[in-house]
Structure to design on (633 residues):
């Protein structure tokens, strides 16, 4: 009588009425929207292909986690209780796992049967648990494996203080399942609480309400009472302490770096206020930052209430704090309004880069933000060239049978940014800001697809402004490759001066004449990145002698200089480069350096790169190792 889709709609509406859960109802809505907007077939919204969970049948609502942290064996051991809603009254509950050892599963105090399915590339194994139609809670007893990809276990020697070990997690994109059996999809949100036992003298913190002091028992309790997707579950254990930077903001760091970090992040409270002024109230209570060990594979991770940041942004001159603005901005774009699948990742990151630059403009001025935009423009242009203008240069990408990590490129970040910046320019800031604020409010605590965003954009902003709508051409931005040319033209006085310096130098003037004393990291980045392709080793030596580029303590500048050095086989840089590669694990820095070394025509250099990687590998996080193993294949 009814087609399958009709049954699906009926079922979803019913489930919605019964449960108050909007997840599958929203999917039905998307389908409707799509038929009216004539989306190409390949861009029809899909279910999350990176999970074994079946949220239309059973959906997780709360997680109660109890774990002990065993540094000797490098495992987490304990239990995860999932409060569930059995929408379809089915007798199977599927959760994601990867490299987990499942000991037993219980419903109430009764054990129940379960099966671990076949291992799939990237995804791990589905855990199929036998339940009843009436089951509302399931407890999984388990332990992690020492090779769990989300976890990095550091010996005391690998930390700043050198006295205590350190453990941290990195769950995004699909690694939560390597330390917690759960429905690991950005479209599924749940609240959580946790009890974590750690060795004496260590503190545990999570993406939740956090302690500020150690206790003698080594037992810590956590609560996150806002529903979040699994990729935002986070834990760190180490010998760190806390200092406030304002009433709602503060820093956790190892004692050795705490004061420096507090000075570097002194403007955090101001950033938070600027963010709220732009797009509405901060909904998460506190906003704190935890300074990670240098092997942290990312710049930052927006774990709710507690951003994890790389220590490489602590330069002493606050010049890299836009990264904190970025992670803070995720408290709206990403953590409130979340990409429904990893193919919609640009919704998280593009919006966040836009918001980040608005915070930076509010706190540090237009000229500062303009420099960030120009660097972003260069990033996305370079990325498009590197990708041969291929399919992955679309905002909405196809991740079928792929690791969602493949989508973590400048396209999501910077093409996403320029799309939004183009809309801002076409409709005017006032209208755009009102729209963005309403967007965050409308979709708070929901996960949405690109198509839902586009539909909302048209209905709430562009349909009423047909000239702007045509000028923007959102379809092209989202579904076509490359960078559309209708984005605003950018200008920066500071960068114009840097460009003049380079031109003068190429015309024979001495680099000692440049007025560089006021240059921040961004001018230096512009400088190094604008040096000509055919620069000679002699020219590099002159610049290096003048500006001490090979020995800079600023990791961001070092990283771009080392890429150039590796391309040109400029050997003076190799000693400091080796030190850098063995100390810093931030993927964005080390991958391009290794790539350039590996591509080098000199077989000795290639060999040296391989040897250096072999030595450094044990100190890197699994996320970086996966990428680099591919390179050195
Ligand atoms: N959420 C990302 C980091 C991430 C993305 C981890 C995808 C795993 C998968 C975070 O907000 C981020 O974008 N970090 C950037 C810094 C930012 C200033 C561009 C980074 O780590 O470089
Ligand atoms: Zn981000």
């Amino acid at each position: 009588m009814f087609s399958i889709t009709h049954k699906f709609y009926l079922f979803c509406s019913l489930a919605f009425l019964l449960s108050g859960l909007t997840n599958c109802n929203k999917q039905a809505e998307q389908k409707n929207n799509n038929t009216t907007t004539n989306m190409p077939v390949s861009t029809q919204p899909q279910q999350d292909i990176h999970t074994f969970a079946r949220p239309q049948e059973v959906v997780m609502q709360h997680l109660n986690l109890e774990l002990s942290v065993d540094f000797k064996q490098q495992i987490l051991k304990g239990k995860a209780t999932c409060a569930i809603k059995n929408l379809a009254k089915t007798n199977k509950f599927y959760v994601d796992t990867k490299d987990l050892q499942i000991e037993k599963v219980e419903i109430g105090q009764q054990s129940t049967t379960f099966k671990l399915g076949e291992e799939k590339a990237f995804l791990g194994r589905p855990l199929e648990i036998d339940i009843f139609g009436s089951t509302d809670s399931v407890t999984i007893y388990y332990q992690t494996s020492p090779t769990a990809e989300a976890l990095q276990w550091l010996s005391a020697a690998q930390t700043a203080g050198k006295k205590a070990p350190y453990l941290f997690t990195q769950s995004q994109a699909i690694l939560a399942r390597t330390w917690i059996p759960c429905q690991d999809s950005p479209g599924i949100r749940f609240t959580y609480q946790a009890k974590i036992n750690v060795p004496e003298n260590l503190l545990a913190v999570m993406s939740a309400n956090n302690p500020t002091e150690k206790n003698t028992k080594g037992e810590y309790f956590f609560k996150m009472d806002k529903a979040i997707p699994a990729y935002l579950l986070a834990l760190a254990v180490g010998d760190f302490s806390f200092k406030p930077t304002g009433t709602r903001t503060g820093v956790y760091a190892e004692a050795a770096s705490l004061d420096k970090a507090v000075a570097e992040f002194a403007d955090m409270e101001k950033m938070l206020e600027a963010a709220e002024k732009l797009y509405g109230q901060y909904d998460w209570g506190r906003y704190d930052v935890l300074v990670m060990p240098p092997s942290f594979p990312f710049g930052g991770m927006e774990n709710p209430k507690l951003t994890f940041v790389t220590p490489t942004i602590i330069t002493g001159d606050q010049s890299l704090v836009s990264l904190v603005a970025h992670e803070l901005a995720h408290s709206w774009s990403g953590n409130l309004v979340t990409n429904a699948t990893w193919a919609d990742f640009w919704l998280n990151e593009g919006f966040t880069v836009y918001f980040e630059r608005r915070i930076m403009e509010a706190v540090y001025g237009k000229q500062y933000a303009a420099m960030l935009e120009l660097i972003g423009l260069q990033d996305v242009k370079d990325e498009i060239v590197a990708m041969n203008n291929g399919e992955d240069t679309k905002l909405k990408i196809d991740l079928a049978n792929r690791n969602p990590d493949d989508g973590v490129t400048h396209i999501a970040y910077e093409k996403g940014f320029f799309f939004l910046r183009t809309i801002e320019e076409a409709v005017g800031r006032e209208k755009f800001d009102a729209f963005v604020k309403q967007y965050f409010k409308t979709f708070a605590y929901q996960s949405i697809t690109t198509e839902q965003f586009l539909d909302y954009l048209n209905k709430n902003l562009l349909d009423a402004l047909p000239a702007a709508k045509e000028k923007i051409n959102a379809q092209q931005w989202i579904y076509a490759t490359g960078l559309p040319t209708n984005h605003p033209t950018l200008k920066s006085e500071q960068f114009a001066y840097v460009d003049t310096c380079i031109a003068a130098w190429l015309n024979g003037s001495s680099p000692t004449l440049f007025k560089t004393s006021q240059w921040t990291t961004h001018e230096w980045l512009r400088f190094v990145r604008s040096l000509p392709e055919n620069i000679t080793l002699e020219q590099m030596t002159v610049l290096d002698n003048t500006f001490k580029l090979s020995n800079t303590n600023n990791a961001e500048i070092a990283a771009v200089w080392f890429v150039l050095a590796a391309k040109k086989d400029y050997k003076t840089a190799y000693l400091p480069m080796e030190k850098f590669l063995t100390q810093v694990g931030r993927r964005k820095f080390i991958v391009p350096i290794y790539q350039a070394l590996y591509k080098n025509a000199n077989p000795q250099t290639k060999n040296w790169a391989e040897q250096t990687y072999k030595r450094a590998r044990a100190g890197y996080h699994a996320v970086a190792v996966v990428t680099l193993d591919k390179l050195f294949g």
